[in-house]
Design goal:
single chain, 255 residues, alpha/beta, Rossmann fold, 4-stranded parallel β-sheet, 7% strand
């Protein structure tokens, strides 16, 4: 098994960010912080690459945990980045109430749809702030994605929500690799080792998926693993391929 050289990977990611920004004449980045490891590691990497003065971090609660907010506050203070709290709870609640009235449905009927509204509202807000700060600062701000390779493989994201971004630095890194980078960059232990959850459903990621991230990583690395677990993970992957491939009609075929 090839050793994961964390210092080398971190330097490569920083160079990747800096090269992209220089080539495209960009200045700043908007990052949504959840209180979890992925967004924290993305923040730490961009601070290294761009400097803390060019980072706008956002906390976008929708019936969210105050403990997560405390972690976000501590993270922003540690990395000396600007943090704005934009509470979307009222917008979300009004939206859901309107849907219930228009369609005469109950909360139980809306559960899955409601979960997906939240990341879409958040991504809309991230892009609004990117446009706003581009105007205020007279230099271009873009939105950073925070998904890792394991999440992407099983399609654990919302179309039109947390899969939307302008630049991604974790999508080819597994959960264990993200943790190693976080430890290297000094992300607090309570954040980097926090049990991952979407902050939406009241379940941990692994409870919701029905598989462990460590097992997804084994499948990605083609390690030996129980057949039933491997089959379940690959079915999650196959069932969510539609999230990556949007069919397009290419026009009438010539005879």
């Amino acid at each position: 098994m090839k050793k994961f050289d964390v210092e080398k990977i971190v330097n490569e990611i920083i160079e990747f960010i800096q090269d992209y920004y220089e080539k495209n004449k960009l200045k700043g980045v908007v990052i949504g912080l959840s209180g979890g490891k992925d967004s924290a590691v993305v923040l730490a990497l961009f601070v290294r690459a761009l400097g803390c003065e060019n980072i706008l971090s956002l906390w976008l609660p929708i019936h969210s945990s105050e403990d997560d907010y405390k972690d976000v506050l501590a993270l922003a203070k540690q990395y000396k980045v600007e943090l704005k709290k934009h509470d979307l709870t009222l917008i979300y609640d009004n939206y859901v109430e309107d849907i219930k009235k228009i369609n005469d449905v109950k909360n139980t009927d809306l559960l899955n749809a409601n979960i997906n509204i939240k990341p879409r509202l958040r991504m809309m807000t991230l892009y609004y702030y990117a446009a706003l700060f581009s105007s205020l600062k007279k230099q271009m701000y873009i939105v950073a994605g925070t998904s890792n390779k394991c999440e992407r493989y099983v399609g654990y994201f919302t179309k039109g929500g947390d899969n939307v971004s302008d630049i991604n630095v974790l999508t080819n890194l597994t959960v264990s690799e993200v943790i190693k980078i976080g430890e290297y960059l000094g992300v607090p232990d309570n954040i980097i080792h926090k049990i991952p959850n979407d902050g939406l459903s009241g379940q941990s990621d692994e409870e919701k998926l029905g598989v462990k991230y460590s097992d997804i990583e084994k499948v990605l690395n083609d390690y030996d693993i129980d057949f039933n677990i491997k089959d379940k993970i690959n079915k999650l992957h196959e069932n969510n391929l539609h999230k990556f491939n949007i069919p397009e009609y290419m026009g009438q075929k010539c005879d």
